[in-house]
Amino acid sequence: MKPISFQPYLDKAFTYSQYRDLIDKLLAEGKTTGENHSEFYLDYTKMNVHRMERLDKTTTLTDDMVEVLGNLKRKYIWLVITEAWCGDAAQNLPVLNLIAKQTPNIDLRLVLRDENLELMDHYLTDGGRSIPKLIVLDAETLQEIGHWGPRPAGAQALLVAHKANPAQTHEDFVKEVQLWYAKDRTLSTQHELLALLQAWERQQ
Length: 204
What we know:
Elements lengths: L6 H5 L4 H13 L10 H20 L4 H8 L5 E7 L4 H16 L3 E7 L4 H4 L12 E6 L5 E5 L4 H12 L5 H15 L2 H16 L2
Parallel strand pairs: 1-2
Antiparallel strand pairs: 1-3, 3-4
Helix pairs in contact: 2-3, 3-5, 7-8
């Protein structure tokens, strides 16, 4: 694959609030992001709006995360590949947004997967276009520093186990994953990102 020029993606990226507004606008038109506007995808999108609203109100950052964010030396752009119908995106975007709001050194930007498959295909997970995918860039050079996603290790382990032995229905598996997120309360995502931030700061 040829090297990525990130600027064209940043030029059309959304802020978190713009992304939320886009979803609301599309739902009012009976649509979601992407090309599939079936009842299945619309129902997931509506549930995700409720998830994001709840997490926006209830998520708090750990003391360790707040401390590290308060001492960042580098400036970052966090570019996230997402879609409105994705349950993992709905569970993780609010905490990514809260982290970015905590410090002027992180600028969070979002792009839609299905409109940016050339970018997505640089960040496959086990060959699949799994989202959300966080790409971390140096804000001055736009060079990639690292990436994270599509989900915390605990949730990823559930998916791997399900694929290896799919005894559950898809609906039951989705419920199990969402229950995992509810019990975890964003802590795994925060811990993983905290370790990465500490490593990226040491790279200077």
